[in-house]
Design brief:
- Keywords: Flavoprotein, Oxidoreductase.
- It holds the Pfam family FAD_binding_5.
- It comes from Faecalibacillus faecis.
- GO terms for molecular function: FAD binding; oxidoreductase activity.
- By secondary structure, this protein is of the alpha+beta class.
- The protein has three domains: about 1-45, no CATH class; about 55-160, Uridine Diphospho-n-acetylenolpyruvylglucosamine Reductase, domain 3; about 160-265, CO dehydrogenase flavoprotein, C-terminal domain (Enolase-like, domain 1, 2-Layer Sandwich).
- It contains ten helices and twelve strands.
- It has helices at about 15-20, 70-75, 75-80, 85-90, 95-100, 105-110, 115-125, 140-145, 215-230, 240-265, and strands spanning about 1-10, 25-30, 40-45, 55-60, 60-65, 130, 135-140, 150-160, 160-170, 180-185, 190-195, 200-205.
- The strands form three sheets. Strands 4-5-8-6-7 form a five-stranded antiparallel β-sheet.
- Helix 9 (about 215-230) runs antiparallel to helix 10 (about 240-265).
- It is globular.
- The chain binds flavin-adenine dinucleotide.
- Flavin-adenine dinucleotide binds near residues 31 and 118.
Length: about 260
């Protein structure tokens, strides 16, 4: 059971961080993960008054606040136009609409869960996370960072020419994924992200494999390289061998769909 001694609702990010630094403090997102934990909390910090529930276009960036819900990501037209529907695809399997109405962007990224559909997709978008007080960090770097007392305030996507495809494999709808795969072409740079390995998502650079475009041969060579380097494992949902087979299929499907989106054939 989660036992909370003090609930606080700071009015500034500085105040929130002062609480976050105290022993046994926890920042609250939608509490969907937290509520399943067995722990004693001294200060539970609710960020609801910090205006972090907005999706905003600022100059050449899209800023997604930490308190934006997964449902808002799923239904936001601008984000889904920019990502050719990949954001919607990455969250639509997560439990159900009522759940996605509560789960937040901040909790989903900060948790760096191995099974995360959300982390996989946002890594493929090559975005940055804004941490208080550390500042902006690339999401790929953040995925490997130690857990600190920082508060995640925003996720920032650069508005540059972007094509992205998201796919996942589940044993049954709404379950945790067995494997996640996102591929992107951003400013002519190819990246493939594989998550739910079951370890957290990792990025593989595909530039040298797709210099001559997305062809069956190039996909085959790239997949061979990914499978030889990527650490896949077994858990209660799938074996390592099954994940290897699924990875091969998802990478091929994702690149073929990316090709269709980029070149229209
Ligand atoms: C039953 C179940 C099934 C799920 N299935 C999937 C799935 O299939 N795919 C998938 O991708 N995800 C899945 N999730 C994860 C879910 O989508 C959310 O990512 C998760 O619940 C965390 O979001 P939250 O807003 O509830 O965060 P919380 O539970 O409130 O917080 C999670 C962690 O993040 C910290 N935190 C929250 N916000 C911040 C912040 N702004 N700054 C710093 N730290 C912060 C909290 O202190 C806590 O440690 C599942 C979760 C559950 C409970």
């Amino acid at each position: 059971m989660l036992s909370i001694r003090n609930y606080v609702r700071p009015q500034t990010i500085e105040e929130a961080y002062e609480y976050a630094k105290k022993p046994l403090s926890v920042v609250l997102g939608g509490m969907l993960w937290l509520k399943m934990q067995n722990r004693n909390v001294n200060f539970a910090i609710d960020l609801s008054d910090l205006h972090l529930d907005q999706i905003e276009e600022i100059d050449d960036e899209i800023h997604i606040g930490a308190m934006v819900t997964l449902r808002e990501l799923e239904t936001n037209e601008q984000l889904n136009y920019f990502t050719q529907g990949a954001i919607k695809e990455s969250v639509r399997h997560i439990v159900g609409v009522q759940f996605r109405n509560l789960a937040t962007m901040g909790g989903s990224i900060y948790g760096r869960f191995g099974f995360s559909d959300v982390l996989t997709l946002f890594m493929a978008l090559d975005c940055e996370v804004e941490l208080y007080p550390t500042g902006r960090v690339s999401i790929k770097e953040f995925a490997n960072m130690k857990f600190t007392k920082d508060i995640l305030t925003k996720v920032i996507i650069k508005k540059v020419p972007t094509n992205v495809v998201y796919l996942s494999q589940r044993n049954i709808s709404t379950d945790f994924p067995v494997l996640t795969c996102a591929v992107s072409n951003i400013n002519q740079h190819y990246t493939c992200i594989i998550g739910a390995r079951p370890l957290h998502a990792v990025a593989i650079n595909g530039d040298s494999y797709f210099e001559t475009g997305i062809t069956e041969k190039n996909i085959q060579n790239f997949t061979k390289c990914v499978l030889s380097e990527l650490k896949l494992g077994s858990n209660s949902r799938a074996s390592k061998e099954y994940r290897q087979k699924i990875a091969k299929v998802l990478i091929k499907r994702a690149f073929l769909q990316l090709k269709e989106d980029v070149y229209g054939n």
